[in-house]
Design brief:
Oligomer: single chain
Order of helices and strands: HHEHHHEEEHEHHEEHHEHEHEH
Number of strands: 10
Number of domains: 1
Helix content: 40-55%
Distance between the termini: 9 Å
Radius of gyration: 20 Å
Length: about 260
């Protein structure tokens, strides 16, 4: 399958040129004099976090704890076992059409939808009509982590790190907490936060970003995370195409599962 995608890359460039020409002739959104500034090839990276410790923790839990997780967060742990084929992903990225935010395979356009990803997340508690939006007045990162972990302000503050422009908490701190936390429900919550930070929104390798904690804090209100997951996927793919390179920081596992469901 990988070779088939690579073989069709040249054909995809022809399709893109045809699309741009048709848009100009039909008076679509492209203005007269438009010239494509996109690269003919994008060197996207899909570097992933090491998920072995997450898988080991999950394997150690008994049926009761796993059912507690399933009931609140769906079947997210299956994503831990999805191997990200870097060559396939890079080939797939060549078919991304940033003008329309979809994949163009020859004469066929495909794009993951809210319904697709809702089904893939397998969470019955999600309400599709309650989408996430960042509140104006939100708790500080410290307060959110205190609520999520059940730990003291001193414990949380000592573990927050600055990574570039973002604040993060290292995975190793959450890992150690999961292993010793006396409250089973809190263990499950912290484990779910870790999946969101390391798998679904892997912005900083080995760390859980502050923005992830804000979304995660809203999940208890049965808000669906799907639109923001899709938005991050599209944004990251568009960014890679515009720059001609870059690291994809959406959920590669979900995207590849979606892709395999169509081919």
């Amino acid at each position: 399958m990988e070779n088939e995608f690579l073989d069709k890359m040249e054909d995809n460039m022809v399709v893109r040129v045809w699309l741009e020409k048709t848009q100009l002739e039909k008076g679509d959104s492209l203005m007269e004099g438009y010239r494509s500034e996109l690269w003919d090839f994008t060197r996207s990276s899909v570097t992933q976090n090491n998920l072995q410790e997450l898988k080991e923790i999950w394997a150690q839990w008994d049926h009761e704890v796993k059912q507690l997780f399933y009931g609140n967060y769906g079947d997210l742990p299956y994503l831990l076992n999805i191997k990200v084929d870097k060559h396939l992903f890079r080939a797939l990225a060549q078919f991304w059409n940033s003008a329309y935010s979809c994949f163009t395979f020859g004469k066929v356009d495909l794009v993951p939808t809210v319904e697709d990803y809702t089904a893939l997340l397998r969470c019955s508690r999600i309400q599709v009509d309650k989408a996430y939006s960042r509140a104006i007045n939100v708790l500080t990162f410290v307060k959110k982590l205190m609520n999520i972990t059940g730990m003291s302000e001193q414990w949380v503050t000592a573990r927050i790190k600055q990574k570039g422009e973002s604040k993060c908490i290292p995975w190793k701190s959450l890992r150690d907490l999961i292993l010793v936390h006396p409250d089973t429900k809190k263990k499950v919550v912290v484990f779910a936060l870790s999946i969101y930070g390391l798998v679904i929104f892997p912005r900083e390798l080995g760390h859980i970003d502050e923005a992830v904690s804000d979304l995660f804090d809203r999940l208890n209100r049965r808000v669906t995370p799907v639109p923001i997951i899709l938005a991050e996927t599209f944004r990251s793919l568009n960014s890679c195409w515009i720059m001609g390179e870059g690291r994809f920081i959406g959920c590669a596992q979900l995207l590849l599962v979606w892709f395999h469901s169509h081919f």
